[in-house]
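U., I forgot to send this yesterday:
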Amino acid sequence: MKFGHFDDEAREYVITTPRTPLPWINYLGSQDFFSLISNTGGGYSFYKDAKLLRITRYRYNDIPNDSNGKYYYINDNGTIWNPGFMPSRTKLDSYECRHGMGYTRFKSNKNGLGAELLAFVPVDAACEVNLLTLENTSSEEKNFSLFSYVEFCLWNAMDDMTNFQRNLSIGEVEIEGSTIYHKTEYRERRNHYSFFTVNTPVDGYDTSRDDFLGLGNSNAVPDAVRDCKCRNSVASGWYPAAVHQINLTLKPGEKKSLVFLLGYCENPSDNKWEKPGVIRKDGAHELIRKFHTEEQALEAFARLNQYWTELLSRYTVQSSNPHINRMANIWNQYQCMVTFNMSRSASYYESGTGRGMGFRDSCQDLLGFVHLIPARARERILDIASTQFADGSAYHQYQPLTKKGNLDIGSGFNDDPLWLIAAVAAYLKETGDTSILDAQVPFDCKPGTEEPLFEHLRRSFRYTADHLGPHRLPLIGRADWNDCLNLNCFSSEPGEPFQTTGPSEGPVAESVFIAGMFVKYGKEFAKISKIYGNDQLSETVSKEVQNMYQTILDAGWDGEWFLRAYDANSEKVGSSECKEGQIFIEPQGFCVMAGVGVKEGLAKKALDSVKERLDTKYGVMILQPAYSQYYLNLGEISSYPPGYKENAGIFCHNNPWVSIAETVIGRGNRAYEIYSKTCPSCIEDISEIHRTEPYVYSQMVAGADAARHGEAKNSWLTGTAAWTFVNLSQAILGICPDYEGLRIDPCVPESFGDFTITRTFRDAVYHIEIKNPSNIQKGVTHLNVDGTEVSGNVIPYEKDKKEYFVTAYMG
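Result:
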């Protein structure tokens, strides 16, 4: 069942009913100012950091769900409604929500009055523009009142939700014409403020939420809206809000457009303003001047569209498969940008108050983003590396505003260090910019500890190489990629949560998954070392990688698939000898991606076992059989009900690993089969089962053991986005950035046919045509580059050359 449809030409998903299974959201913003917006107008805004600089308030787990946002109420002769349906939930005569690239547009009608709302964040300003156009579509004159509404957050979102003894006394606003300024805590310790304004004189206002809503009232039908009269309240303590009342008269066929602006401003740090408690409004006035008219708003919107046109043009494909075209050209790349900006911090499943940026998460997100804006990828790599510890380990998470590690989470996730090598390798392949290796980067953000980025990579590698267990496999620490596989647990008091030891003390659980990572990214580090001019280190690294390769074969193979790990007592995890949890997806994908077992014939066995034991119609499960009880030696993974999350759920994040692994052994049919089962466009028809947005990937889908098999959760902010783009663009379609240039190595279904790709790579545009006359799955015999035959499958890179015309022949 569908609740909308794709409009590929407009690069939009069109939602045709407000009653979607879950809120279907979009992200506005591409630099520092961001908003989340749902298909019914819910959501919130923040600047840079969703925890520390939250601008508007949002309530998770509220009833009804998703009932706070930027709202516009219309009182048309006693009928109260909203263009986005919520929060009044009045039945509309027509409704449409179009989520596009950095913008959302609502179009609805009630009783002959039409409303079109365009919401977007300009590419060059710290604000959200809402262009609201009202049209009288009836044959009678319309007299009605419009009310805007936002509720301000008191900046620190966590404190805002918890510290009521203080924050119910600090709310403070200032009013200047049609502009309402939120200046809470400005007098004390902040040099920033926010504001909400409209480009017309107002007939009333409210800045006190409770005065606007009325005693004991919800936001569905505020008293001021019902009475068609704002209270002109001025918030003092309590809950600051921003409401504009505008009384309108429209003749039949007449339109009226209004520009609302939610902005964020900072004053210079050397501010010598001598009026304590009174905000400087220079920044706000400048923003208001830039977006004061409808024409200015539409010009900014046109610039936003051009921005996305240029970004998305860096990788485009034309094939006979509409799902691949749609996802590769539009939605997958768009989601990669969002995950790069947000990491895992702010979604409808992450409140923005805890996780911040993930070390592992952000490194993975770079894999799908680096081709879009390489300069920003470079900045992010250096940010991530600066949070690393001197021993090569890392904070698992850090706050984007402060770059400080999350002490509650800390370190000890022993896969983290190797992801930095993965990110830098992807950047070097994409750009050829080896100067990044010399960039001076501190450890733990401490001045005086700066070392070249290359040294950070060396310590990342050494951290894994120097922390091996009794089987000579890498120690898992608190966990590896699977945060819930806590194998170093020790007993605690009944009713108390389990505890774990640190990475170098107590028990010594080992990870076959990290071993696969070590082989894959160790090979990359050996190449990087050689590029850096350290041949001796390159040789040493290669030897250690080869030793680990053999260790996996000796201690990590279970007969038909790769083991997952050894627990703290050296008992096998992910083995046929186990009662439950006999096979896991992660090592089957990553070990084969690393090339382990390919020449020995073990890779095919492992992937066949995945298909036989883990596959479902909705994707590949993370493990089987599901754990039916809690196991202390396994930790949180066994605390979930069977079929959910890490306990036999379908993790869309690592389905691409198995698909990529299938391309390693040349099985394009199977690679695409796996891809299609979690591809949003391919499963749009089952939206009533899947429930999350049909235009972006989710983190997980309920597995075969779950009551709601096929139901997705945790959409948008997931490594699924980057890894699926890598899978689709590089492994399946086969356009692979490499140190020497672009490598052409597709692995496609037999029926896929010829296809073309346009790819920007190192400031040159490549026009690539793939010809497959024999309909084989994998194998390129030769290339024709600008009319010259080239042996092999790497396009020779020529510095300063700006355009290439390439034909690749499969056979």
